[in-house]
Specification:
globular; alpha/beta; 388 residues; binds 4'-deoxy-4'-aminopyridoxal-5'-phosphate; 15% strand; single chain
Length: 388
């Protein structure tokens, strides 16, 4: 019997065989002509995946938190005011990072866990004036809450505030149109919907963000993150010239180019539609199994992951039973509700059969813990959408 488990957590996700093979290529020099070509191709593909033809892409060796660090370090100077649209754990982290670089941070918090602040509340804060940067978590991985990135970006443009989108749990899965929506910096990490093993921080800066960086008075408070060091490197790779500041993650960049190629072969519109369809099927299954979810309304529920509450009197032992049935899902993360819910990622190369296998494993787990439901109800609800 196969002992492989299906990994359905919100990152790292399962990667395609082609991407995994690329990570095992014989490592070249970082200035080998064939690597320079691949790096240039990856940068071009990032512009297409972020839907930001005029953006400057950056690829760093590091995780998503480094991408957060880079956005905050390069856009803020001591004494700047920053607004954080706060939907959970990763918004709190962004606030901490902005403060670390000397910004004074104001949070507009969701009224309750599982909700997002309204555009009116955000606008009221922006009206107070003085903000240089507004940061928001597109999909908060701790709550599965999505914010209205388009509406927030429009407010940022209207009030002359730089917008920063944490797209770690969204880019290449959730609909995100960086240039059209006017998002000044968007970033993600390789291990989620981008579909590459952990280790790359990916950032795309729009023209307003690059201009704001050039107008800085104070040096960037982080040596590694400083765009002064990296902008010439990314420009050089983009123009297919050798250059060096810090050794790039050669094999991961090879894999990145392969994965971005696969994403673009599918096409961004088709990719958004597939994520929406699989998400609908999975969420319908969760509802049919009589589990409620952390997001309080469907408008604030993400498409890249789902956060169901455990049934009454059930704890995280459910996750062990789901694993025994072959699927690995994640426990809770938000401090206020950590022991009351679990999280299932469905992004990247995820397929219909992955969704059905996951629903089936959850049904088996629920049966083990004595939850009252009709066996097969979740699968039937998912199939109704998948066969429509
Ligand atoms: N932001 C969001 C929305 C995330 O989901 C994560 C990781 N789960 C991060 C930032 C941090 O990324 P990393 O764990 O790769 O540092």
């Amino acid at each position: 019997m196969k002992d492989r488990k299906l990994l359905m957590i919100p990152g790292p996700i399962e990667f395609t065989p082609e991407v995994l093979r690329a990570t095992g290529m014989p490592t070249t020099s970082h200035i080998a002509p064939n690597f320079i070509e691949v790096f240039a191709e990856a940068l071009e593909r990032m512009r297409e995946v972020f839907l930001c033809p005029k953006g400057q892409p950056f690829v760093f060796a590091g995780s998503g938190t480094l991408a957060m660090d880079i956005a905050a370090a390069n856009l803020t100077e001591p004494g700047n005011e920053a607004l954080v649209v706060n939907t959970g754990y990763f918004s709190d982290r962004m606030g901490d990072i902005l403060e670390r670089y000397g910004a004074t941070v104001t949070h507009v918090r969701a009224p309750t866990v599982g909700d997002a602040p309204s555009l009116d509340e955000v606008e009221a804060a922006l009206k107070e004036g003085g903000y240089k940067v507004m940061a928001f978590t597109h999909v908060d991985t701790s709550t599965a809450v999505v914010v209205d990135a388009k509406g927030l970006s429009a407010l940022g443009q209207e009030y002359g505030v730089l917008t920063v989108l944490d797209g770690v749990c969204s880019v290449a899965g959730e609909e995100m149109r960086q240039q059209e929506w006017g998002i000044d910096v968007a970033f993600t990490a390789s291990q989620k919907a981008i579909g590459v093993p952990p280790g790359l921080a990916l950032v795309v800066a729009g023209p307003r963000a690059v201009d704001a960086f050039h107008e800085r008075k104070a040096p960037v408070g982080n040596y590694y993150a400083d765009w002064t060091n990296w902008l010439p490197i990314m420009e050089a790779y983009g123009e297919r010239r050798p250059s060096y500041f810090g050794t790039p993650a050669v094999n991961l960049i090879w894999a990145l180019s392969v994965s971005l190629g696969q994403i673009l072969d599918e096409g961004m519109e088709a990719r958004f539609a597939r994520h929406q369809r699989l998400n609908q099927a999975f969420k319908a299954a969760i509802a049919a199994l009589r589990l409620s979810q952390v997001p309080v309304r469907s408008e604030v529920a993400a498409t890249t992951l789902t956060a169901p509450y455990y049934p009454d009197d059930v704890d995280r032992s459910l996750l062990g039973h789901i694993k025994e049935a072959g699927v690995i899902v994640a426990g809770g993360l938000h401090a206020e509700i950590r022991d009351r819910y679990f999280r299932v990622g469905h992004m990247g190369a995820v397929s219909e059969s992955d969704i059905l296998a996951t629903v089936g494993a959850i049904e088996q787990g629920l049966a083990q813990v004595g939850h009252g439901f009709e066996p097969g109800a979740g699968l039937a609800a998912a199939q109704e959408i998948l066969t429509a």
